[in-house]
Known about the structure:
The complex is a heterodimer. Chain A is of the alpha+beta class. Chain A has 9 helices and 7 strands.
Amino acid sequence: MIAVLQDPVRRRLYEYVAAQGREVGRNEAAEAVGVARTLAAHHLDRLAEAGLLESGSRRLTGRSGPGAGRPAKVYTRALVERSVSLPARDYRTAAELLAEVAEEAGLDAGLCAAARRRGEALRGAAAPCGDLAEAMGLLAARGYEPHIEAGEEGEGGEGGEGGLGGVVRMRNCPFHTVAERFPPLVCGMNLALLEGLIGTDGPVRARMDARPGECCVVVEVSKTNEH
Amino acid sequence: MTKPTRAAHLAQLNVATLLHPIDDPRIAPFVEALDPVNAAADGAPGFVWRLVGEGESDATGLRPAGEDVIVNLSVWESQEALWDFAYRSGHLEVMRRRREWFERHVEAHMVLWWVPAGHLPTVGEALDRLAELREHGPSPRAFTFASSYTATEAARHLPPAQTVRSLRPEPADESAAV
């Protein structure tokens, strides 16, 4: 599994497809990574063989029937979770057992306090996160796969001088497996961690806004700042 | 194999013991969340039905399981639909803050079971299922998200008729067990 991602071109292709959160065709992937289409196709197929990507075919032109041409091959990231640990370590079992006990004992508040402290420690001496772009960087570094979603509220719109309107949503939950088993406990922990990391009294803030298939938290411009 | 497969819906009962009376200011954030969250449930994909008190918009006034125990009884088209509402909607924020408003339950406080589509479970029936779960652990008759059964699995294990015993514990017994 590690070997499959060793090739730098292949790795960049994987990262590109994973970041899109939708089906990606060979031409698009080749252009994004800056390699020839045939080379991209080769690597994309190797990634699919290894189970890291899923492939399918689709007529990208929207035409169908005879004369529509061959359907194009498209790729998305595989949903399965892979982890590599050498030597073998099993933190997932430990996490599940600890979460089970914390759930039974009702330790939500203590867990959230610890998570908030951890988030603050990760932020270190830095000031609270200054804008959404900075938040995107922090979240990406922690594996959340953030992306901007255009303002849905309608009124107001562009959210001030920050430039980026809307909210930051995240495609990946780093705690997915445990969060699925103990959602209120682990999602609460996740929110507290991000509150610590982003800061609670700065220009942007983390808020719970769960949605199917995504991380339960969004980061947005603080309401008080919008005035 | 003569019986046709009937469509099944998933019923859900949740009991929660209030830390303070429902009109106490410490419970106010929960009460404020009731209307928006219930509206989200009513509009959620796969929502079928939820219990409400007569002339009320929710079930918090009903106390069939004890004076300070509120109940939540609903029916969904599938387990995924219920899951997505419970944990992937505005409802999660309420769940996250549950320890501010509710006692921690030592015993199971949530139970799931399959009902024939169109059947709306009674509170008594729902409390029976919870009692079964507490007494015998998860089974096709009464289970949880972590130990779930599909409608097909449940149908296979169930006696054909609805003539399952009618041992309905008095509400008083139920609250004593909480």
